[in-house]
Design goal:
296 residues, Methyltransferase, Cobalt-precorrin-4 Transmethylase, Domain 2, five-stranded mixed beta sheet, 16% strand
Length: 296
């Protein structure tokens, strides 16, 4: 892949979420070499550019001007300019309007190149101590409609993967209250705040104890919340009940291996254990199972 900015290419450049030392060499070089930087807040990004002695001109691109800026951005790209898109912190496109520009570039065949950088969601997740092999990123919950917030959380009640949310300090208590209603107070939660900054903190407990903790102190800093997934309530069958379930499936014409796989998905038992039990059962008679058993 070319190492210098290429004409007519949009670069998504990750920037520090707090600690300027997290800026990558590649990100600095790209910002120095592109024709223009599209920034969510030019004053905020200006401080970053000044720190790294980057003199590339900026244009503003944020939620309230994106509709008017999109045609200009596409025109510049079609004319062969290289553009770097940056957000105030982290990777562009995550909880900011970068998605719309990327979507249009993809539709028009304009190359889009990510320049990886810090992400509060990933940083908080991997340090949370909660499962991070499978997770769901939810970002900010709806804040203008309490009903929509509750609906969104209700949709996630049975989600077994870890859940990642962003929240502002002045809404943290309300969010925890809504989560207690939707998920229950005993659900594990990790509150990460001020990530990579001087006062970085990870608080671990349950939703109920988090509510108690922040009832006694004022929330400060930007928060990333990692909520443990729901624990699937898997039925535990006695051997007699398991045999009855196996026999019922076999009489329906389902093979031993298929029946074992199906019951393993419904219970906490290993498929191999269920299959061994299935092998000990007599094959259904012709009247019960006209096609015979087939484990091939």
């Amino acid at each position: 892949m070319p190492t210098d900015p290429q004409p007519g290419t949009l670069y998504l450049v990750g920037t520090p979420i707090g600690n300027l030392e997290d800026m990558t060499f590649r990100a600095v070089r790209l910002l120095q070499g592109v024709d223009v930087i599209a920034a969510e807040d030019t004053r905020h990004t200006g401080k970053l550019l000044h720190h790294f002695q980057i003199t590339t001109p900026q244009v503003s691109y944020y939620e309230h001007n994106q509709k008017s800026r999109l045609p200009e951005m596409l025109r510049r790209l079609h004319q062969g300019q290289a553009i770097a898109l940056v957000t105030d912190a982290g990777m562009p496109g995550i909880s900011d309007p970068g998605y719309e520009l990327v979507k249009l570039c993809a539709a028009e065949g304009i190359p889009v190149v990510p320049i990886p950088g810090p992400s509060a969601a990933i940083a908080a997740l991997v340090a949370s101590g909660l499962p991070c092999d499978r997770f769901v990123f939810e970002g900010f919950l709806p804040n203008h409609s309490p009903a929509r917030r509750q609906e969104r959380l209700a949709e996630l009640q049975a989600e077994t993967r870890s859940l990642v949310f962003y929240e502002a300090p002045h809404r943290l208590r309300k969010t925890l209250q809504d989560m207690a209603v939707a998920f229950g107070g005993d659900r594990p939660v990790v509150l990460a705040r001020e990530l990579t900054k001087l006062h970085e903190e990870f608080w671990r407990g349950t939703i109920a104890t988090a509510l108690d903790h922040y009832a006694k102190r004022e929330p400060a800093g930007e928060f990333t919340l990692i909520v443990g997934g729901a624990i699937r309530n898997e039925p535990v069958l006695s051997e007699a009940a398991l045999i009855a379930e196996l026999q019922a499936l076999l009489h329906q014409g389902i093979s031993r291996s298929q029946a074992s796989r199906q019951l393993a998905q419904q219970t906490a038992l290993p498929r191999r254990q269920i299959y061994q039990l299935a092998l000990s059962l007599p094959a259904p008679t012709d009247s019960d199972y006209p096609h015979g058993d087939n484990d091939s």
